[in-house]
Amino acid sequence: MSTIPWQDKPENCNDVMWRYSENPIIDRYAIPSSNSIFNSAVVPFGDGFAGVFRCDNKAVQMNIFAGFSKNGIDWDINHEPIIMRSGNTEMIESAYKYDPRVVFIEDRYWITWCNGYNGPTIGIGYTFDFKEFFQCENAFLPFNRNGVLFPQKINGKYAMLSRPSDNGHTPFGDIWISYSPDMKYWGEHRLVMKPTPFEDSAWQCTKVGAGPIPILTDEGWLMIYHGVINTCNGFRYAMGSALLDVDSPDKVKYRTQPYLLGPAEIYEMVGDVPNVVFPCAALHSVEEDKLTVYYGAADTAVAIAFGKLSEVIRFTKENSL
Ligand code: BMA
């Protein structure tokens, strides 16, 4: 098992999460075709890590690329995008792919992403080796984004968070959960979480969407999510956390009133889309009490932030709405 990327908390830091001193870890031009690399997903793989990266090319076409790393920080990203073969259905259209998430369930790595099929919806695929990839049926009708699978079945079914949306820069957004017996047919849709009233917690008052794969803890599913406020200069994306009931994750037990991490460093505030912290993956170690979150910074580069798992859980409980 590989050691997850880590750096101790700086002496002068009072926050529950802190940034890696060498952020961003992946530069916008890390592969020859890229305009930007951000909102990407990583998992432990072999004696290191593998990932699925959102690389927009210089025509600003959005696609996903496989990558590999020994230490989770220095990445070799393939120069060609992932080619999909048909999985549990005939090949379906994919005009674009963005914002991937990756999770190992049972015997393979499942990938979800925002799939262009007459508008954005949730694409699903799988791989065993990050070399061959198989595309499955879309989970939902358009329009939807931020499809995030749970790492194990819940009450005998696969479970996925998502955020129904519109065709554009959606000015609303709730987190929902849906279930499937087979990764093909999805139903039993339940509301999990809405944006907050402006006066209670304005950073998450416009929309919310799930981020990394939820982490099972003694206090419930730890769900890191993004929250958005609409300002006079556009959307601002920050990251918070919630604890969901283990057996019925549509029940929110705790949810942070303050954000865990908001755009404050130059690489988060300046880029193709300013003021965006957009988490899509996390590595964790219960034994070592470590959590490392991967997030897109300003829709331009990939950065990481650290927290003690126990402190993030405690912070979520003690600062709950
Ligand atoms: C969302 C998605 C994300 C992006 C974010 C901020 O709607 O398009 O990919 O990071 O907006 O621009």
TrEMBL record:
One of its GO terms (molecular function) is glycosyltransferase activity. Transmembrane segments: none annotated. InterPro entries: Glyco_hydro_beta-prop_sf, Mannoside_phosphorylase. Gene3D superfamilies: Glycosyl hydrolase domain, family 43. Keywords: Glycosyltransferase, Transferase. Belongs to the glycosyl hydrolase 130 family. PANTHER family: 1,4-BETA-MANNOSYL-N-ACETYLGLUCOSAMINE PHOSPHORYLASE, GLYCOSIDASE. This is Beta-1,4-mannooligosaccharide/beta-1, 4-mannosyl-N-acetylglucosamine phosphorylase. It comes from Flavobacterium aquicola.
